[in-house]
Design a protein that fits this description.
15% of the residues lie in helices and 43% in strands. The chain is mainly β and 174 residues long. The strands form two sheets. Strands 1, 2, 3, 4, 5, 7, 8 and 11 form an eight-stranded antiparallel sheet that branches. It has a three-stranded antiparallel sheet with strand order 6-10-9, with no helix packed on it. Strand 9 and strand 10 form a beta hairpin. The two termini are 27 Å apart. The N terminus is likely disordered.
Amino acid sequence: WIGSGDFFMPKNDWFLIVTHRITYRNQDMTMDYYVKQTSTLSGSTVPFPEVKNFLKEDRDINDSLIDSLITTSEMTLEKYTGHILIEKTYEMKVTEFADINIPYNPVDTGSITVSYLDENNTSQTLASDNYQIYEKDHTQIVYEDNLPTLTTENDYPVTIEFTAGYSGSIPKDL
Protein backbone atom coordinates (compact mmCIF):
# COMPACT_ATOMS: atom_id res chain seq x y z
CA TRP A 1 0.00 0.00 0.00
CA ILE A 2 1.44 3.33 -1.07
CA GLY A 3 -0.67 6.46 -1.00
CA SER A 4 -0.16 10.14 -1.61
CA GLY A 5 -2.05 13.38 -2.03
CA ASP A 6 -4.62 13.40 0.79
CA PHE A 7 -7.41 15.94 0.38
CA PHE A 8 -9.83 16.82 3.17
CA MET A 9 -13.25 18.21 2.39
CA PRO A 10 -15.97 18.52 5.06
CA LYS A 11 -19.43 17.17 4.28
CA ASN A 12 -21.77 17.59 7.24
CA ASP A 13 -19.84 15.91 10.09
CA TRP A 14 -17.91 13.68 7.67
CA PHE A 15 -14.55 14.46 6.09
CA LEU A 16 -13.92 13.12 2.62
CA ILE A 17 -10.37 11.90 2.24
CA VAL A 18 -9.29 11.20 -1.31
CA THR A 19 -6.05 9.34 -1.74
CA HIS A 20 -4.98 10.22 -5.27
CA ARG A 21 -2.56 7.38 -5.86
CA ILE A 22 -2.62 3.97 -4.23
CA THR A 23 -0.63 0.94 -5.22
CA TYR A 24 -2.64 -1.99 -3.92
CA ARG A 25 -1.47 -5.52 -4.64
CA ASN A 26 0.59 -4.28 -7.61
CA GLN A 27 -2.32 -2.32 -9.07
CA ASP A 28 -2.60 1.48 -9.25
CA MET A 29 -5.97 2.84 -8.16
CA THR A 30 -7.68 5.82 -6.56
CA MET A 31 -9.67 5.34 -3.38
CA ASP A 32 -11.76 7.69 -1.34
CA TYR A 33 -13.38 7.31 2.04
CA TYR A 34 -15.17 9.33 4.71
CA VAL A 35 -14.12 9.75 8.34
CA LYS A 36 -16.36 11.00 11.13
CA GLN A 37 -15.58 11.58 14.80
CA THR A 38 -18.35 9.89 16.79
CA SER A 39 -17.37 10.78 20.37
CA THR A 40 -14.70 12.21 22.65
CA LEU A 41 -13.67 9.86 25.46
CA SER A 42 -11.73 12.32 27.62
CA GLY A 43 -11.52 16.05 28.28
CA SER A 44 -9.30 18.81 26.99
CA THR A 45 -5.51 18.62 26.79
CA VAL A 46 -5.16 21.71 28.95
CA PRO A 47 -7.51 22.35 31.89
CA PHE A 48 -9.63 25.45 31.31
CA PRO A 49 -8.83 26.99 34.75
CA GLU A 50 -5.11 26.64 34.03
CA VAL A 51 -5.42 28.58 30.76
CA LYS A 52 -7.62 31.21 32.37
CA ASN A 53 -5.12 31.61 35.22
CA PHE A 54 -2.19 31.83 32.76
CA LEU A 55 -4.00 34.61 30.90
CA LYS A 56 -4.67 36.32 34.25
CA GLU A 57 -8.33 36.50 33.30
CA ASP A 58 -10.61 36.69 36.33
CA ARG A 59 -13.82 37.69 34.54
CA ASP A 60 -16.29 35.17 33.10
CA ILE A 61 -17.12 37.31 30.07
CA ASN A 62 -14.30 35.77 27.94
CA ASP A 63 -14.84 32.13 28.96
CA SER A 64 -16.40 31.06 25.67
CA LEU A 65 -13.62 32.76 23.70
CA ILE A 66 -10.91 31.07 25.80
CA ASP A 67 -12.66 27.71 25.41
CA SER A 68 -12.88 28.10 21.63
CA LEU A 69 -9.18 29.08 21.47
CA ILE A 70 -8.24 25.89 23.35
CA THR A 71 -10.38 23.78 21.00
CA THR A 72 -9.02 25.49 17.88
CA SER A 73 -5.43 25.02 19.08
CA GLU A 74 -6.02 21.31 19.70
CA MET A 75 -7.68 20.83 16.30
CA THR A 76 -4.86 22.69 14.50
CA LEU A 77 -2.18 20.60 16.20
CA GLU A 78 -4.07 17.37 15.41
CA LYS A 79 -4.44 18.33 11.76
CA TYR A 80 -0.79 19.35 11.45
CA THR A 81 0.70 16.29 13.21
CA GLY A 82 -1.89 13.60 12.40
CA HIS A 83 -1.85 12.73 16.11
CA ILE A 84 -5.09 12.83 18.06
CA LEU A 85 -4.41 14.49 21.40
CA ILE A 86 -7.28 13.08 23.47
CA GLU A 87 -9.08 9.79 22.95
CA LYS A 88 -11.89 9.95 20.40
CA THR A 89 -13.87 7.35 18.52
CA TYR A 90 -14.13 7.45 14.74
CA GLU A 91 -16.04 5.82 11.95
CA MET A 92 -14.64 5.40 8.44
CA LYS A 93 -16.83 4.66 5.42
CA VAL A 94 -14.91 2.88 2.66
CA THR A 95 -15.86 1.86 -0.87
CA GLU A 96 -14.47 -1.69 -0.70
CA PHE A 97 -12.33 -4.18 1.19
CA ALA A 98 -8.98 -2.65 0.23
CA ASP A 99 -5.93 -2.48 2.47
CA ILE A 100 -5.97 0.94 4.11
CA ASN A 101 -4.06 3.15 6.52
CA ILE A 102 -6.07 4.68 9.33
CA PRO A 103 -5.37 8.42 8.96
CA TYR A 104 -4.84 9.17 12.67
CA ASN A 105 -2.35 8.19 15.38
CA PRO A 106 -2.14 6.60 17.88
CA VAL A 107 -4.84 3.97 17.29
CA ASP A 108 -6.05 1.52 19.93
CA THR A 109 -5.80 -1.56 17.70
CA GLY A 110 -8.04 -3.55 20.07
CA SER A 111 -10.87 -1.12 19.34
CA ILE A 112 -10.92 -1.72 15.56
CA THR A 113 -14.06 -3.33 14.18
CA VAL A 114 -14.97 -3.78 10.53
CA SER A 115 -18.56 -4.12 9.41
CA TYR A 116 -20.10 -4.18 5.95
CA LEU A 117 -23.34 -4.28 4.03
CA ASP A 118 -23.66 -7.69 2.42
CA GLU A 119 -25.20 -8.45 -0.98
CA ASN A 120 -28.67 -8.24 0.64
CA ASN A 121 -27.81 -4.79 2.06
CA THR A 122 -27.75 -6.22 5.60
CA SER A 123 -25.15 -5.05 8.10
CA GLN A 124 -22.64 -7.74 9.11
CA THR A 125 -19.50 -7.70 11.26
CA LEU A 126 -16.38 -8.99 9.53
CA ALA A 127 -14.60 -11.60 11.65
CA SER A 128 -11.20 -10.35 12.80
CA ASP A 129 -9.47 -13.38 11.26
CA ASN A 130 -10.36 -11.90 7.83
CA TYR A 131 -7.88 -9.04 8.29
CA GLN A 132 -4.56 -8.24 9.90
CA ILE A 133 -3.60 -5.04 11.70
CA TYR A 134 -0.08 -3.67 11.28
CA GLU A 135 1.48 -0.73 13.08
CA LYS A 136 4.42 1.28 11.82
CA ASP A 137 4.04 4.96 10.91
CA HIS A 138 0.28 4.43 10.69
CA THR A 139 -2.07 1.65 11.64
CA GLN A 140 -2.83 -0.40 8.55
CA ILE A 141 -5.64 -2.88 7.95
CA VAL A 142 -4.73 -5.61 5.46
CA TYR A 143 -7.54 -7.88 4.32
CA GLU A 144 -7.28 -11.59 3.57
CA ASP A 145 -8.59 -13.09 0.34
CA ASN A 146 -12.07 -14.64 -0.11
CA LEU A 147 -14.05 -11.83 1.50
CA PRO A 148 -17.84 -11.56 1.44
CA THR A 149 -19.68 -9.91 -1.45
CA LEU A 150 -20.67 -6.30 -0.78
CA THR A 151 -23.93 -4.59 -1.64
CA THR A 152 -24.11 -2.54 -4.82
CA GLU A 153 -26.81 -0.30 -3.31
CA ASN A 154 -24.38 1.76 -1.22
CA ASP A 155 -21.27 3.64 -2.40
CA TYR A 156 -19.53 3.10 0.98
CA PRO A 157 -20.56 -0.37 2.20
CA VAL A 158 -17.57 -0.96 4.52
CA THR A 159 -17.40 0.71 7.95
CA ILE A 160 -14.30 0.73 10.14
CA GLU A 161 -14.73 1.89 13.73
CA PHE A 162 -11.76 2.68 15.95
CA THR A 163 -10.48 4.72 18.87
CA ALA A 164 -7.53 7.07 18.37
CA GLY A 165 -5.73 9.44 20.69
CA TYR A 166 -3.67 9.50 23.84
CA SER A 167 -5.32 8.15 26.98
CA GLY A 168 -2.60 9.36 29.31
CA SER A 169 -0.02 12.06 28.94
CA ILE A 170 0.69 13.53 25.54
CA PRO A 171 4.29 13.25 24.30
CA LYS A 172 6.16 16.50 24.92
CA ASP A 173 7.53 16.62 21.36
CA LEU A 174 4.02 17.22 20.01
